[in-house]
Design a protein that fits this description.
Length: 344
């Protein structure tokens, strides 16, 4: 009998194949960097790094006169020694607005910080191994985040096992390893943290937690989610939304270690109204019996997400979505019968 592949395993396979395709569009020497960071990073992190580094080399081809007649595969590692701090400052300015095919791409403070942090890690690898002699990325200031963060992250030093996975995966270099309670622990700098939560997804001890601010901040998070969704579909016609109520775990899909469902699989739901769809799915989870043997021992009618995260306001997203015209919280469920499989 074939082993059942979990959602997270399948996602990891897909990301690995996707990463290989992206690496084919980078200079050949870059593969050394990605092989080196593979044991300590997720495929999701490596894909982000690959896209960021590709933009850097595209910038050199398009904007630097010294490389105007070059091709991507002509770059070798010694080219990194030819790049100056001024070149990187020009690159940082370029990232604010640039053309990617027919699209105009923009980056705010968070996007700039992420891409410059990726480039720093890239340079640091070759410099540490003495494959290059200079590292101009340390001479260029990483953009500061001026927007107020609605969340921050904190590591529980008692739970932390000092493995350093969060430290190695943080794109903003906001985590340092130190001593605490007679052992090695991680510490997160709230001024450097960009709130991406990558550290949470790789922590095997579940030692990193979100610290939510005021009730207004918590509500604001859900409202922003609704606004981002509206922005993504604005101007589009005939959009169909599909939710898969399968493997419903306490944390989001990006947390591979959150693998114990809280309720049995419910099925699939679809609608042309995203607010009604999400509200209906939320209500179906509330109405469902808890998964047998699951640690929280939920029952029918329990507001499971509210009990899991009492500091959050899950209904704020529905209410604000309705307010801004994304959809309606009113819905009618219609079951679709699945035809029986034909007999052999």
């Amino acid at each position: 009998m074939d082993k059942k592949v979990t959602y997270h395993e399948q996602t990891d396979v897909e990301n690995t194949l996707r990463l290989r395709d992206v690496l084919k569009t980078l200079p050949p020497f870059c593969r050394d960097f990605f092989r080196a960071i593979e044991p300590r990073t997720t495929t999701k992190t490596r894909i982000s790094y690959a896209y960021d580094i590709r933009i850097f080399f595209q910038f050199l081809l398009e904007q630097n006169p010294a490389f105007k007649d070059w091709s991507m595969d002509a770059f070798t590692v010694d080219i990194l020694d030819q790049i100056t701090a001024i070149d990187l400052e020009e690159y940082e300015e370029y990232l604010k607005v640039y053309q990617a095919g027919d699209k105009t791409e923009t980056n705010g403070e968070r996007g700039l910080k992420r891409k410059m942090s990726s480039l720093r890690s890239f340079y640091a690898y070759y410099f540490k191994r003495e494959m290059i002699h200079t590292n101009p990325t340390v001479l260029v200031d990483v953009p500061k985040i001026h927007q107020k963060s609605i969340i921050r992250l904190e590591a529980d030093e008692e739970t932390c096992i000092g493995c350093g996975r969060c430290y190695r995966n943080c794109p903003a270099h906001a985590i340092a390893m130190g001593e605490g309670g007679g052992k090695k622990v991680c510490r997160i700098d709230p001024k450097q943290c960009i709130g991406c939560c990558e550290c949470m997804t790789v922590c095997p001890a579940k030692a990193i937690h979100m610290l939510w601010g005021s009730a207004d901040d918590r509500r604001s998070f859900g409202c922003r989610m609704a606004e981002y969704a509206r922005g993504a579909v604005k101007g589009r016609k005939r959009v169909i939304y599909i939710n898969a109520m399968m493997d419903i775990t306490p944390l989001c899909d990006c947390c591979g270690w959150s693998d114990t469902p809280i309720v049995p699989d419910i099925g699939f739901a679809f609608s042309t109204d995203p607010v009604a769809l999400d509200k209906a799915c939320y209500d179906l989870v509330t109405a469902a019996e808890g998964m047998p043997g699951e640690e929280h021992r939920f029952h029918r009618g329990d507001d499971k997400f509210a009990q899991l995260y009492p500091e959050c306001e899950p209904h704020a997203q529905f209410q604000h979505g309705e307010k801004i015209g994304l959809g309606s919280m009113d819905y009618e469920l219609r079951a679709i019968a699945v035809p029986p499989e034909p007999e052999e």
